[in-house]
Write a structure and sequence with these properties.
heterodimer, A: Cytochrome-c3 Hydrogenase, chain B, three-stranded antiparallel beta sheet, 8 strands, globular, B: alpha/beta, Beta Polymerase, domain 2, two-stranded parallel sheet, 21% helix
């Protein structure tokens, strides 16, 4: 496809090192003047062979590596790995551990969306929201550091529960954060949502048709912005999500503005879930006892979870020994990035920056 | 649709070719032969009662004497889930399922370069994750020897 360059067309390289490509991704743009004719993504700069390493570590030794698949929302990667192994070995998780897992997941969802919002606004030229978002994110990282000692790659969940209990100071501080965060989302909206420059750059840009999105296995906020109100926390409730009340935001026009609005609403809903979980967390154990030499039974399992970018799944084949036979990571960003060429034909080069940022793709998720 | 009805629908259309096997986390899982895979996938997607429109995961497992491809399919409308497996010899060829779901495009490129399988009629068979000048074999195979790669002893 890059061989046939027409008489007026030329190739521009948006190289692996670029401030707007959110990681190491190379985009080859075939342009006709300023209009884009085709985009070819070249990925693989961050390929660390996570799947090959998994065949060489025991199950518990692999847990810190799952953090690094998607380091901005590392709790989800831990959670889905634990879910898959617990399904296979039929381990029950105590209630307090489930509540703690939900609180950590939703706090991590807010933190990841704040990173996305800051960098998305920065790509479009709005510099102030970046610092506002990172100010809030510091408070969340303080809470997470109080729980497990780490700010970004947690290694917190274990098969059968979590590794450490919450400190007594955690719950009052978390309740304080929840009340502090509610007017902050309104602050970000006040800067961006009705700003004429922002609307001019995002309304009607980068439209993704729902049928094409389903065909390319796009999941998460990108799919919800096309109008399909699909969220695994409501459709296939895992953990204890069926006890909480929350809404699923969805868009109508499936442009960049809709994807932005869906994520803003998701931050509000995640805040709601954390508030409800903090009210009703019970006392109890935090982990069921598992044998030191952990050998799950022979078989295959597939588990999936609604992570910040979409559906994240683990396919594990076990042969009855302490080391997994095959671990396949189904990551959300890999499928979401494949739809970029379809979405960006016919737009100008400045729109590519907005479209790519609105997909919320993280490169370690793509390359593993 | 419940598990027995799904299995029955496939068995009616492809008699004697469907073999069930246990798979935790899915409603139903069965094996088919590798030359039928494109027809089975098209049938799974286009039949209104089945309606499997999401290809979530396409993985390849190396069992040393043969390789297996596993397709995990989900449905947005009916909310059921199945897994389809086919078995191939190493260095084998199989039809690409890109006509059914475009999501398979990038997944198949990854399997082709990491395991050494060939997908017939694939619209874009270029390597995706490994560098362009990679010539050291197929890394995800179980018998791949790379320098500094030390295997843990099995227990």
């Amino acid at each position: 496809m890059v061989e046939k360059v027409g008489a007026e067309e030329f190739l521009v390289n948006m190289g692996p090192q670029h401030p707007s490509t959110h990681g190491v991704c190379r985009l080859l743009l075939k342009m006709d003047g300023e209009v884009i004719v085709d985009v070819v993504p070249y990925v693989g700069y961050l390929h660390r062979s996570m799947e090959k390493i998994a065949e060489n570590r025991t199950y518990l030794q692999y847990m810190p590596l799952t953090d690094r698949i998607d380091y901005v929302s590392a709790m989800f990667c831990n959670h889905v790995f634990c879910m898959a192994v617990e399904k296979l070995a039929q381990i029950q998780v105590p209630e307090r551990a489930e509540y703690i897992r939900v609180i950590m997941d939703e706090l991590n969802r807010i933190a990841s969306h704040l990173v996305w919002l800051g960098t998305f606004a920065l790509d479009l030229g709005a510099i102030t929201p970046f610092l506002y978002c990172f100010r809030e994110r510091e408070k969340i990282l303080d809470l997470l550091e109080m729980v497990c000692g780490q700010r970004m790659t947690f290694n917190y969940m274990r098969f059968g529960g979590v590794s450490r209990d919450l400190l007594p100071e955690f719950i009052p501080k978390a309740k304080e954060f929840v009340q502090y965060f509610k007017p902050r989302v309104d602050e970000y909206e006040a800067i961006l949502t009705n700003n004429p420059i922002f609307l001019g750059r995002t309304k009607g840009v980068g439209i993704l048709d729902q049928k094409i999105a389903i065909d390319y296995s796009v999941t998460g906020p990108n799919l919800r912005a096309t109008g399909l109100r699909w969220d695994l926390r409501k459709e296939e409730p895992y953990s204890i999500y069926d006890r909480f009340e929350f809404d699923i935001p969805a868009g109508t026009n499936s442009d960049v503005w809709d994807r932005y609005m869906v994520r803003i609403q998701e931050m509000r809903q995640a805040n709601r879930i954390v508030e409800q979980a903090l009210e009703s967390i019970p006392e109890g154990e935090i982990k069921t006892k598992t044998p030191t030499v952990f050998r799950p039974p022979k078989g295959e399992v597939y588990a999936r979870i609604e992570s910040t970018r979409g559906e994240m799944g683990f396919y594990i084949v076990s042969d009855g020994s302490t080391i997994p036979y095959r671990v396949k990571l189904r990551t959300a960003s890999f499928s979401n990035l494949a739809v970029l060429p379809v979405m960006s034909r016919g737009w100008k080069i400045a729109d590519i920056v907005a479209i790519f940022a609105s997909l919320d793709v993280i490169m370690p998720d793509v390359d593993r | 649709m419940i598990k027995e009805q799904i299995l029955q629908a496939f068995q009616n259309k492809f008699p004697q070719k469907i073999e069930e096997f246990p798979f935790v986390g899915m409603d139903v899982a069965f094996k088919v032969e590798s030359d039928l895979i494109l027809e089975v996938c098209r049938f799974a997607k286009e039949t209104p009662e089945l309606g499997f429109d999401l290809l979530a995961c396409l993985s390849c497992v190396d069992y040393l004497d043969h390789m297996e491809l596993v397709y995990n399919l989900f449905s947005f409308t009916h909310k059921h889930k199945i897994a389809i497996k086919t078995s191939l010899p190493r260095d084998g060829e199989i039809d690409s399922v890109t006509p059914a779901w475009n999501a398979a495009n990038w997944h198949e490129r990854e399997i082709a370069e990491l395991f050494g399988m060939t997908f017939k009629n694939h619209p874009d068979p270029r390597p995706i994750l490994l560098p362009e000048d990679w010539n050291e074999g197929y890394p995800m195979r179980k018998d791949w020897e790379g320098k500094d790669f030390v295997r843990l002893p099995k227990k």
